[in-house]
Amino acid sequence: MTLAVIGVIADLTIPTMMASYQKSVYETSFRTAYSDFVQATKRYMLSKDNKLVNNMGDIDNVMSDYCEIYNCVEICASGDREDCGHPDFGYNISGKETYSMGGPPWRYIQLSNGMAMGFYLTGNNDNCEGSNFTKDTEDIGCLWVKIDTNALEGPNKLGYDQYKFGVHREGPFVEGTPGSFYDDISEYCTMSKNLDQDTNGRACGGRILLKGGIDYL
Description:
The chain has helices at 2-47, 59-70, 81-84, 185-188, 204-211, and strands spanning 74-76, 92-93, 96-97, 107-110, 116-121, 134-135, 138-139, 141-148, 162-168, 171-174. By secondary structure, it is an alpha+beta fold.
């Protein structure tokens, strides 16, 4: 009888403990990615005299600069699509087929810490114009960034191990924070919708910061 009770208690508590542990892993990984991205972007901006205007015209150059800052292990530039995976379905890392983080014009780097980053210029030119990311009616958006915190491992979903970031003229930001393009966390990071959807999940990084942790899984 005692063993049966213990078994029931274990059946009830172990899944909850595992779920709680997994959420803590996702949250810790996000915070590491966020901190590293902020520091890397500050270094990038410092190398451009803190002026992103006229310095964002070539995605491969931008990606190479970040690659140097992060000490990345592999880079998938626009001319390397054959080596970096199917042009419509993400990229390969050292010949290992992975998943889609988005097709062209996204470009990718693999980091030495096991993370992967995708880059996408938001503006129509190197002045960060035409990005639909505005402040006081002025286009200021320069770069979208997507970070997968464990690259070759699953689940490869926004809000779990993938998060959206960005860079505007004033510096780095996390999607879901006030003023970002997807700043409505009730719409773009919510349990009431499937986080596998294209837009839902984009604000989860900001939601973690605003709520003090993962409250949507």
